[in-house]
UniProtKB/TrEMBL annotation:
<feature type="domain" description="NadR/Ttd14 AAA">
    <location>
        <begin position="3"/>
        <end position="121"/>
    </location>
</feature>
<dbReference type="InterPro" id="IPR038727">
    <property type="entry name" value="NadR/Ttd14_AAA_dom"/>
</dbReference>
<protein>
    <recommendedName>
        <fullName>NadR/Ttd14 AAA domain-containing protein</fullName>
    </recommendedName>
</protein>
<dbReference type="InterPro" id="IPR027417">
    <property type="entry name" value="P-loop_NTPase"/>
</dbReference>
<dbReference type="Pfam" id="PF13521">
    <property type="entry name" value="AAA_28"/>
</dbReference>
Amino acid sequence: MRIGVSGTHGTGKTTLVEALCARLPGHVAVDEPYHLLEEEGHEFQYPPSSEDYRSLMARAARSLCSPPSPSATIFDRTPLDYLAYLVAAGADPSEEADHTPLRVAFTHLDLLVITVITPETERLLPATEWPGLRARTNDALLELVYDDPLDAWPDTPVLELSGPLDGRADLVLDTVAQLGRPGSEATSTGPTAG
């Protein structure tokens, strides 16, 4: 399986990616594009600028399409994350992204997992920077994933994780098992797990 984990900052994405890699034999994690671009010499503004988010979105799309990525891969962030940050900053998604490269990128995913802000994330996870941007991005991401204004991920199954943090990995593993069964209609784009 190739799984992408998306969500605003401070929602437990990286922890979930690590837990899934530990429980899915042979799966490897692809680091989030921010770190990949830093290693490639990109200098980010603080907080990141719209141009930074565009670069991150393009790098995330390249990661999904990259041939060296094995079929058993879990991606820490997808292009959807950075489109949501742009929308949260007031951008029009149709002016920020060409649907064709995004659609090609999302065809390389078997499952898109969305981590969202919940009362439990606010209580148990460390406080984050830019809480206003975080909340706006969470809302923008949810609207984008379900409305799909670019028609970029219509066939990608979506699993929204809004339930307890300690049950997230199990929900993803259950969905992976369902998707792996021939003829299974385990998930479709839309809210699937609470």
